[in-house]
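lol ok so funny story. i was supposed to be doing the assay writeup but got distracted and ended up predicting the structure for this chain instead. priorities right. anyway since i did it might as well share w the group, maybe its usefull for someone
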Amino acid sequence: MIPAVLNEAQLQLFETIVASRNKVLPSAKLFDESGALRGPWNVEVASPALGTHLERLADAVRTQNSLPPRLYEVAILAVGVHWKSQYEWFAHEALAARAGVSPAALALIKDGAPAERLSGQLQADEAAVYKLSVELLQTKRVSSCTYATTKQALGGDDTKMADLCMTIGCYNAVCAILNMFNVALPPGAPLPFPEPADAPHSP
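and the output, tada:
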């Protein structure tokens, strides 16, 4: 959906997204060749009544999170791997690296490695966040041991635990959008994960 065909509410959200995301993403990751938004944003613009609120939450995860970027990016990447979400990994691998997550750890996370294999590759708090994220995604629960260990790694901070959970929840929604609409990467960008042959197309 390019600006010329948007109604007033859609255009307002389009401009809000551009103003916010231009600060962290290069144009090639933000816009496709037609001038429409990439990522989940084209879908959000198609339904501004709901898309506005998801965008506000995602923006708050990035700008108001009590977790530092290296921690919330680890959680986001765990969600991306769980969904095998092409665009999510494409966008957030670079952001995680910029935040200080080691290249060796990123390679293991991408392969879906268990938390034990990342020992020594992630900082202690990063490893705790990764283990909890993977456990929640895979089992739909978090054990009392994992919860207590992660909370201790985060300084016993209830706000950080809440923000971690909401970060995971937000990016599950984002990945659902990306996968349902088969959001494309820029031309020439390699796919992070194998892609099924039959997939729907972006709006």
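The mean pLDDT is 93. The chain has ten helices and no strands.
back to the writeup now i swear
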